[in-house]
Amino acid sequence: MSTPYISTATVGNAHKSDILDVEVTSRFTVTVSSDGFLKLWSNESSERSLHKEVLVDKVGLHHVSVLEDIIDMKRVMIFALGSFSGTLSLWKYDFDTEELIDLNFDYKTTGLSAKSLFWFPKFAIGSGEIKFICTTVSGRTAVFDVTVEEGNPTLDYKGELYSNDNSFATCVSIDIDNNRIVVGHQNGNFYLYDIKQLLLSYNFESFGIKNSKSLNIVRSVAFSPNGELLAIANDSGPYGTISLYDVKYGEYLGAFVISTHSSNVGVGNFAHSKWCMSIAFNKDGKKLVSCGLDNLIKIWDVESRSCLNTLKLNATDLEDEDVLKLDDMDISACTSVTFVEQGIFKEDGQNDGLVVVGFDRSIRWFREAGGL
Amino acid sequence: MTSNRIVIISQDCLNIVNDNHIQNELLEYLSKILNIIENGLKNGDYIQLELHINPILKRKSVLTFPNLKENINWKFTVYLRLLKFIHTQIIKGEIISKRQLYYADVKLFKKQTIVDECLDNIALSFNLSIEKLNIIASQKGLIYGELSIDNYKISKSIGSTLIPVINLSSSLSDSKIIFNNNENSSPDSIIILEKDAILSGLINIEKSNKHLTQKFNNSILITARGYPDRLTKHFINILTIKFNKCKIYGYFDSDVYGFMIALEYSSKPMNNNTSLPCVSNMIIKGAKLFDNNVKYSDLIPLNDKDISTSMSLLNRLKTYDDTTLDSLNSSIKNLQRSLYFGFKRELKIVDIN
Question: How many domains does chain A have?
Fold first, then answer.
């Protein structure tokens, strides 16, 4: 069954440059951008007004992960930010003063012996434990235990995930309840590890067109909420493919493909006609959302792997003055998309919401139509 | 009976009263130390060669000969050979290029960079430019246009020419530059290219299009073939001062090396005596990683070195002031996107517009 998605809010010109990652917490929609800013947008206001912003790194941020929890009766919100200079920053939101505070993260205090160029940060909260993971450009992934006292986190280096593959580790997804973590690499390989033992469980090779010139870069990985399925978005030549795997047996289940009636497409079985940059499951795991450089957001039915909905983004829904600020490089390509849990936005009612960011410097919120 | 002999190369050893006496003073001192070293070698003495490369930072390098370490013996020989070369060049009053020096004893020098590095160290220690040692950098840059510098003519009819040797301490007033054989004419643009492949491609197109309007009729095209050398930079600098009204464009690859080469022109100080870059008003055009004309087949995956070089360049850029960063905005964006996607792109002739 497919229901259309309708736009609930749009913020144009939200950053001065490409917005590369978005995450939704209970109170804020969090964005990071190439302009180096971390911005918190208030979920309560229907215009999604800017709540707080801070310049973290002049040379730009590309990924953010938020740790949000109540620890020792205290609300905690910590941001891990990956910068283009290969450094990692930790910031916290102080609920009393409503300020963003730099935690001056130094890898030396964690027990990590050598400096690495960090890339993709990720927090994961399990029952009674918090993990922090960060990939590096040299293919190793550092694993930390996190303890939070008085709202301040302490990172304790546990070890690294490494499979003799020095290819740039581009993305991770963690299923902490089942002790699983998957790491995607630039060369198209992705590895499933046991996060407790730091041991390799499975290694996978990507599907799609392969030749020496085109790497099958893994762009995004996601475990389904129940931990049984694993979705992988990777390049296949100029196209973007999404494949589904069974986690328990490491089996390939199939690909998410757009139905085509034309005989000249279909070789690569692709999901997006350009690279697919981001994928995410919804809370019950029945739907998957993907977005790509083809300016499309696609919502898929996981069971049948068919496309339920396609949203086309273009700059026409932005205010004219915001469009004027864009330059010729700023197409509406989407870099990050995620489902929003029910209850975060009042206007979404019992429906799934979506938030997407991209090169046109805008943040767009959507919700499933009907059934309010 | 062996003894220790210490030879010091430092600016303090020269008693420079005015510029005219530099070479005499240098010749005298070089004769003296070469004498000491040669006599020392005959005696079998230990010879300690001290290069006071940076007296303020107290950076010096000390080589003792003979030494148990083979590498140090070799380095000492390299310095001795170079000092002798400089000595002879000054006596003869002739100028020699670094490249020629290297070919004079390939077996000893092994690599051109060794010659360059050691010469730089000697020049730095004396606090003199290498030209004062009668040595010039080899000509590397190419130029295409109708131009004459003093009596040296650069003509489009013969294709691209090597950038003429001019004194690196000279200024605009020292040479007479004429564009298109007309004292009052000025080019519309000066176009700086990263590679000579693009330059020769453009020249070929222009030559095959004889009857059409020529795109670069009123332009000067220059390439330093990769990282610019001092001569090319100095030459471009003089040209831009002379033709101060014309626009300067730079075309570089859409990767970290293209960006670093662009910075060599637009932001890095030209030499030790100035904080000014070669062309501060250069408009960086270059290849864009993504625009409508880019085909997938043009994209090249980044390798490990590209990634770490990009990140360390970005780290260095943090120290730049905001105005400079603003002017580099589109190049930085390109580099960020190239890292984000894991791809780079080389400049193509179609990108030149």
Answer: 1
